[in-house]
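The protein record minuted underneath.
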Amino acid sequence: MANAVRTVSRAAIYCRGGSHEAQGRLCKEEILAHENWTLADTYADAEIPDSQTRDSRTAFNRMLEDCRKGKLDKIVTISVSRFARNLPDGLAILRELAAAGVTVHFVKESIDTESLLAQAVRE
């Protein structure tokens, strides 16, 4: 895993929807609460309604591209619902990110894929 040798995770914030500023503040607080995380960038799709497809989420797609380029180690987002519109799409994205060594932290659900990946490696 790419961030296994890193002592500091380059974390990005992802926000979507009308409350993106409040989401961003909460995500930034979460990053600051972890001494080994540093804020690398913020990606916000401010006015993207739930009915829109992933193609219209330009900030999200730019963030994924930055992950593919190795610029990020972790994504911090307020909730699963802000990250992906449906389970199949969300799982596909999480698999792609895991393959790139990028983990995702969902603040409201207190889920971090880093611990899930570590458990899968041990098994």
The chain has a mean pLDDT of 86. The helical segments are 20-32, 58-68, 80-83, 87-99, 113-122. Strands lie at 9-16, 37-45, 74-77, 103-106, 111-112. The chain has one domain: 2-122.
